[in-house]
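Please fill in the sequence for the structure shown.

STRUCTURE ENCODING:
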């Protein structure tokens, strides 16, 4: 007897009908006294079943950690096979996988096999359905409130092209620059994500169509007119990750499921021409576009509306990197026409674009 077969015969609740090597008819394998004393032992039914081997009285156990139904369909110590056939399963002595079992039609072993196949198929289909529901689509709207922005020269010392501001100090004794705000900015977003456990991964696209910068320069004394205005828009794409805190065992306030998240990606920002209005003249600075690094951090709550749809409300901090005006032709215009417009070859300027805001979105799992 192989070591595997001996181990199975010693299992509680095991009894087996074995083959007679000469006749091929079933014969009872006498149980040992120790086996009779094992918990779960049942006495074999009297008589033998001719015409092939059958094993019954198995308990719902596995061998080597495998599920019992997989083991039951693949291993049978009552049937013998060649060592080569048994070796892949760790039984070189001859405990076997038998490809052709002569089972009684409709017998309990056959039914158990069919039931096991049905259960395995159901588990596979159920896992596939759960996987499909892990993907989701999210769409939302929001409002951003960028922080204060300050336009300065990329290189204040350059003369060809000419720096717009220069390296000196202005009428307020601060570095020459333009300081202002972009106001409240609308935003729309679309995300495609995958949820697994407490973690959600998402490809996020956001569009902010209308930034309106309004500020003041400091070339002149603070009480003199030097208004600055510009129009911007931005399109960003990020890879974001979210963690549902309730799934980690943290308290869940009623129907609200809190989450935190962060993302990193790229942003394409376009700025129109910048206009600086002085008491007698208007200076225009060329517009342009730039692609750079962007990132965000967020915290919010989700409310499940049904099995597939949830409503997310979140606060978000976003850093859209630098906004830049490119090198290009500008000009100074005397509004009373007393002088001809003066062309300028201007060097780039830059400003940092950051802010925070809220997002309201619907998430649909499919």
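FILLED IN BY: designer on duty
SEQUENCE:
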């Amino acid at each position: 007897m192989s070591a595997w077969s001996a181990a199975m015969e010693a299992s509680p609740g095991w009894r087996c009908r074995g083959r007679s090597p000469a006749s091929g008819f079933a014969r009872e394998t006498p149980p040992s006294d120790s086996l009779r004393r094992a918990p779960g032992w049942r006495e074999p039914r009297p008589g033998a079943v001719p015409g092939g081997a059958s094993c019954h009285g198995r308990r719902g156990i596995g061998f080597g950690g495998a599920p019992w139904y997989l083991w039951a369909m693949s291993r049978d110590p009552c049937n013998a096979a060649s060592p080569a056939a048994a070796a892949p399963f760790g039984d070189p002595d001859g405990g076997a996988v038998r490809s052709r079992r002569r089972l009684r039609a409709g017998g309990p072993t056959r039914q158990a096999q069919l039931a096991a196949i049905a259960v395995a198929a159901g588990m596979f289909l159920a896992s596939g359905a759960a996987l499909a529901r892990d993907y989701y689509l999210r769409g939302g709207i929001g409002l951003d409130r960028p922080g204060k922005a300050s336009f300065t020269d990329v290189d204040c010392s350059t003369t060809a092209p000419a720096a717009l501001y220069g390296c000196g100090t202005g009428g307020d004794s601060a570095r020459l620059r333009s300081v202002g705000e972009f106001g409240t900015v609308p935003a729309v977003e679309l995300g495609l994500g995958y949820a697994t456990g407490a973690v959600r991964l998402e490809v996020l696209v956001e569009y902010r169509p209308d930034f309106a910068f309004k500020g003041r320069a400091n070339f002149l004394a603070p009480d003199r007119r030097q208004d600055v205005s510009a129009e911007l828009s931005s399109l960003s794409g990020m890879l974001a990750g979210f963690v549902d805190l309730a799934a980690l065992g943290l308290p869940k306030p009623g129907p609200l499921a809190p989450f935190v998240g962060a993302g990193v990606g790229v942003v394409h920002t376009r700025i129109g021409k910048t206009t600086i209005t002085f008491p007698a003249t208007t200076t225009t600075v060329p517009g342009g576009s730039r692609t750079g690094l962007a990132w965000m951090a967020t915290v919010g709550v989700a409310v499940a509306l049904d099995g597939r749809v949830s409503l997310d409300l979140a606060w978000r901090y976003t850093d859209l990197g630098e906004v830049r005006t490119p090198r290009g032709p500008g000009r100074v215009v005397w509004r009373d026409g007393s002088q001809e417009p003066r062309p300028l070859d201007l060097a780039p300027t830059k400003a940092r674009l950051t802010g925070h805001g809220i997002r309201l979105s619907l998430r649909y799992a499919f």
